[in-house]
Amino acid sequence: MTTLFLTVGLPGAGKTTRARQLATEHSALRLTPDEWMIPLFGEPEADGKRDVLEGRLLWLALEALKLGSDVVLDFGCWSRDERSAIRWLAELVGASCRLVYMPVDHETQRARIARRQSATPDQTFPMSEADLLHWRTLFEEPDAAELDRHEVGGPPHGWSDWLEWAADRWPSLV
Ligand SMILES: Nc1ncnc2c1ncn2[C@@H]1O[C@H](COP(=O)(O)OP(=O)(O)OP(=O)(O)O)[C@@H](O)[C@H]1O
Ligand SMILES: [Mg+2]
């Protein structure tokens, strides 16, 4: 059985650092959207292209899992629904999914982002104090039940299954 590792956490939490370690430990394919967005478009969102890019990376992740490779999907996944959808899709192709949650307090986050911005400005984007505070209000922290859980609940009302939900969230998934 192959494993999908899914990073969860705010910017600067250390997700990509951990994702690199996991990729080495498990000989896994690591997919980090910023490593595609920056060379392709030079900006993080690029008029919604990030959603399109992530859909293709998720598709690629599922193909690799089917072919027998472990995958580290370094999406950060702030929303519980995103995490549930990705877990459901991984299980659909016969893989297991492990959430890799990297909690970070505000001061640590700010210090790490500042250090990274000065050390490797070409690999990241400027982030303001206001951005960090706003993003923290949007982040849905996974609870113990979600981190342990092996069963995924159903999709939000109005969606027939998680694939339909995911194909709306990431338009290029299917
Ligand atoms: N455990 C750690 N202790 C100290 N510094 C760390 C740790 N993990 C990561 N860092 C440093 O903090 C910075 C941010 O780490 P990283 O790029 O891995 O975060 P990220 O969660 O991937 O952020 P983003 O969401 O913006 O991509 C980097 O400069 C990294 O070297
Ligand atoms: Mg990162």
Major pleated sheet: 4 strands, parallel
| Strand arrangement across the biggest beta sheet | 2-3-1-4
The structural domain count equals 1
**Morphology call:** globular
CATH class: Alpha Beta
Determine the CATH topology. Answer: Rossmann fold
Q: What is the correct CATH architecture?
A: 3-Layer(aba) Sandwich
Mean pLDDT: 96
By DSSP, the count of extended strands is 4
What labels would you give this structure?
174 residues, alpha/beta, Rossmann fold, four-stranded parallel sheet, globular, binds adenosine-5'-triphosphate, binds magnesium ion
Detailed description of the structure:
The chain has a single domain (3-167), classed as P-loop containing nucleotide triphosphate hydrolases (Rossmann fold), CATH 3.40.50.300. The chain is 51% helix and 12% strand. The protein has eight helices and four strands. A four-stranded parallel beta sheet has the order 2-3-1-4, sandwiched between helices. Helix 4 crosses helix 8 (162-169). The longest helix is centred in the first third of the chain and has 18 residues, at 49-66. The mean pLDDT is 96. Bound molecules: adenosine-5'-triphosphate and magnesium ion (MG). Residues 15-16, 32, 34, 74 line the site of magnesium ion (MG).
